[in-house]
Specification:
alpha/beta, 7 helices, single chain, elongated
């Protein structure tokens, strides 16, 4: 029987997206722009190229003078890159020119040096054609002053940084990075390298989430591990003041939900929803403590990371002012049979490969136990199966979320 208390994944995502807003803009230098998200359009401050320039090494001449070959012209000057020839090219004259140099007045074409015989004072054009405009890059060929080449909401790449530099833009207005506090809970977990008791396990959530947040463009703050008692949990949670989001791990399942809700309720938590119709990751909570949003992730490391992909990432992307905030999905052929699904949306860790026809094949691992963190570390994708999906056969088309080969690995 379906659990009427479970919220569909899409509805939970939309509630989070609707609740949060893009963060204010801040100005940064171009050298700090990689991976940042533009808060406003960036327009060019110059034409590129700023004037007509030669696209080849050769001679700047008048097309009329080389319409009939051979043609002998007087060399009246030189124009290396970065140094214009100040005179005017008249009938029967040529200027030795190099790639990138401004085309001198009077010239309307470039004769490449391979088609010439040269001496100190003359050049003889013996081959090829050079109609007007040949091998000349006109002013503004690439872009013009005022052209918007980097739109608001764009995540800046290395190519974008180079483009902005060519546009003569030294400063950028970008959305402030979200400040995200991370609070792990549970007496049973210890940090890597700390002494481990007989009944304890090593915590991986805070470290993986910190890296996840950094990759997505946020700034993580690890608040430590809160014990399963009210005073300790409340004291550490108070450290999230001033953060945009507080992420907790653990303490949101049926058995211990009341503790987390009551303790955080004492410092102002208002719960929007908890418990999602998905697997792994049923126990997820969303709410707000004064000016800080709360996303309560499951304590299970696999469930925590899958829920981070599905819910934390859209929140961060929305705060960064990005247009596309939901996880990217695509399709592949299924590499194995799958049984009928129940009421929970499934996210199956899977490997991707190409078959003999070059088609992409997604094969979920045989064991999907949510305690198996190594499988999500090596997984290429999460195969998505809708609630109550019918049994699927090898070769059927399935949707999946890529986990590799992206800047954020989400």
């Amino acid at each position: 029987m379906a659990d009427k208390g479970l919220l569909p994944v899409a509805e939970a995502q939309q509630r989070i997206i609707d609740a949060v807003s893009p963060l204010p803009a801040e100005q940064i230098s171009l050298t700090d722009g990689l991976g940042r998200v533009l808060a406003q359009d960036v327009a060019s401050r110059r034409d590129q190229p700023p004037m007509a320039v030669s696209a080849m090494d050769g001679y700047a001449v008048r097309a009329a003078d080389v319409a009939t070959l051979p043609a002998t012209l007087n060399v009246i000057g030189y124009a290396p890159a970065g140094h214009a020839f100040d005179g005017v090219v008249g009938p029967g004259e040529a200027v030795r020119i190099f790639t990138g140099a401004p085309v001198p007045d009077g010239a309307d074409t470039i004769v490449i040096q391979e088609n010439t015989e040269q001496s100190d004072e003359e050049v003889r054009v013996v081959d090829g054609t050079a109609p007007a405009g040949r091998f000349i890059r006109p002013a503004g060929l690439d872009f013009a002053t005022g052209d918007v080449l980097l739109p608001r909401g764009r995540v800046l790449t290395a190519r974008d940084i180079g483009l902005a530099a060519a546009m003569n833009v030294p400063w950028l207005n970008v959305h402030r990075k979200p400040r995200i506090s991370i609070l792990a809970t549970g007496d049973e977990i210890v940090m890597p390298g700390d002494p481990i008791g007989r009944d304890q396990i090593v915590s991986s959530n805070a470290l993986s989430l910190g890296a996840f947040i950094t990759a997505l463009g946020g700034t993580p703050l690890d608040l430590g591990i809160a014990p399963d008692e009210e005073d300790g949990l409340k004291a550490l949670a108070a450290g999230a003041g001033g953060s945009d989001i507080l992420v907790t791990t653990g303490g949101a399942s049926v058995g211990d939900h009341d503790l987390v809700q009551s303790v955080l309720g004492d410092i102002g938590l208002e719960v929007d929803f908890w418990r999602i119709a998905m697997r792994p990751g049923k126990s997820l909570m969303f709410g707000r403590i004064d000016g800080t949003y709360l996303i309560g992730l499951p304590g299970n490391p696999v469930s925590s990371l899958v829920c981070a992909i599905m819910f934390l990432a859209p929140a961060i992307r929305t705060m960064l002012g990005m247009a596309d905030v939901l996880p990217r999905t695509t399709t592949a052929r299924l590499g194995t049979d799958l049984p009928e699904n129940d009421e929970r949306e499934d996210y199956l860790r899977a490997a991707l490969a190409r078959d003999e026809n070059g088609d992409l094949v997604a094969t979920p691992y045989g064991k999907q136990d949510s305690s198996m963190f190594a499988t999500i570390a090596r997984a290429d994708a999460l195969v998505v199966r809708a609630p109550f999906a019918k049994a699927a056969r090898t070769g059927d088309t399935v949707g999946f979320i890529p986990l590799k080969d992206s800047i954020f690995s989400t």
